[in-house]
Design goal:
By secondary structure, the protein is of the alpha/beta class. 29% of the residues lie in helices and 20% in strands. Strand 5, helix 4 (129-143) and strand 6 (147-153) form a beta-alpha-beta unit. Helix 1 (11-22) crosses helix 5 (181-190).
Length: 206
Amino acid sequence: MNILVLGATGRVGSQLVTYALHDRHNVAVLVRTPEKIEINNENLTIIKGNVLNKDDIVRAMQGIDVVISALNTDGTTTLSASMPLIIKAMEDEDIQRIITIGTAGILQSRTTPNSLRYLSSESKRKSTRAAKEHHKVYDMLKQSTLVWTIVCPKYLPAGESVGKYRVEGNFLPEGGVEISVPDTAEFTFSQIKSSDYIKSRVGIAY
C-alpha cells in the first residue's frame, strides 16, 4: 500500500512512519525540514514541502492509496488551513481513505449529550483553542466525500507501548485519562485495514 503521512516529524507521526515501514508499505512524507527524518529506508520517500502549499500537497498525493494525518495545532491555524487543500487534492486524485489524529475534546460529551466534550463541563482544560481547530477539521471531513476516521486520544505522554487499551466510537472510554504516543500510533495505523470506525470519531484511552 502507498501511504502518505502528514506531520511525520511529530511524536505520533514519526511512530506512524516506523509502523508503516515495518509493515513493508511504501511511505511518503511531506515535511518542511527533511533533515528531521532520521530513517533511512528504501520504501521511504521524503518530499520537501509545506502542507499550506497547494502544489506541494498535490505533488505528495501522487500514487497514494491512504493518507494518515498526524498534524497538530502547534498554537497556529495550520491544521484547519491545510485540511481544505488536503481534502481537495484527495478528491481530485480519487483517494478516498484518510485517518487523522484529533483530540478527545471533539468527542461527544456524556454529561451534555448534544455537545462536544470541550464545550461541556466534562472537559477540564482551560484553553479550548486546540479543540476548536480540531472541531473545524471534523466539520470539514463530515462535509467531504472522503472515507474518514478521526482518532481522538486523551492526554498523550511519550510512554511505552502497552498494546492494551480501550476504544469507543464517538465517545471517550469511561474513566479514560491517558494513552501513550506509541499506542495511539499503533491503533491509528491499524485503521488502514479496518472499517470499524468509518466516517466517525473514535476515543482511545487506557
